[in-house]
Amino acid sequence: MKLLKQVAFWLTLGIVFIFFMFPLYWILISSFKTRADVVSTTPTYLPYIEFQPTFNNYTDVLIGGSQESGDGSTVTASADVSEFRDRLINSIIITGASTLLAVLVGTLTAYAVSRFTIPLEDDFMFFVLSTRMLPPIVVLIPIFVLFSDLGLRDSYHGIIILYTAFNLPFVVWIMKGFFDEIPKEYEEAAMLDGYSRFQAIYKIVLPEAIPAMAATAVFSIIVSWNEFVLANFLNRDAASTVPPFLNSIIGVGAVEWGRLAAASVVYVIPVIIFTFIVRNHLLRGVTFGAVRR
Hints:
Elements: H1 2-30, H2 35-38, H3 56-62, E1 66-68, E2 74-76, H4 79-82, H5 84-115, H6 121-130, H7 140-150, H8 156-181, H9 185-192, H10 197-226, H11 229-234, H12 243-246, H13 257-277, H14 279-286
Antiparallel strand pairs: 1-2
Helix pairs in contact: 1-13, 3-13, 5-8, 5-10, 6-8, 8-10, 9-10, 10-14
């Protein structure tokens, strides 16, 4: 009976794993297929066995050029494909800057709320959280009008400020919970030894809060990295990011699914790398305060 339960558990786990990972695997192998293989009515799953992989899609996306369709013809890469690198750089700059600002400002705000007495603190925190309850599409029109009047459309600083504002409530709410778990006695002991408030924060509190900041940064990066609606309407030219750009990767007369898959694979790599770098802090950050001593 025990063996049967273990078999059922691992079988169920395997089915769930395949269910969630298969779309990612399909995108990955599609990025190595020719146009003929991608649109073929007979699906192929195994490279080198069922189809011959090619790197032309990645060459077209990262360098630009043309792609062999597999039947001897050539599909001319549109100008949009050659601009993918610029859009990727824009996404890195905008996401990195907005995440850095949101985590920095949000951490200091959360510390102040956690350590000092604020009138109507619960109402203030609810107001902070309520700003994230509305989807971006609801506030799109007033933001569009405001950005047009202030000349912030199609600019780096405009979308950076906007993403920072959207991530800030989340950072404040999460970081306050982490600061509440750090005893105030740490800072009080440091200030008794002659440290100023800022020195105590920098040398005592922030090292303890690094895992929480890393975890919060990952979630903020994901939000900014994947945001589509605001970027599509506000930044469509010079400072355009990748999400609204992906649907424009087309060839002559048909959607270039191979190039689209290759661009998607390249696009997720920076987030995977950052998450891998902070993985140790991330695990501790998301479980901080779960076990009380």
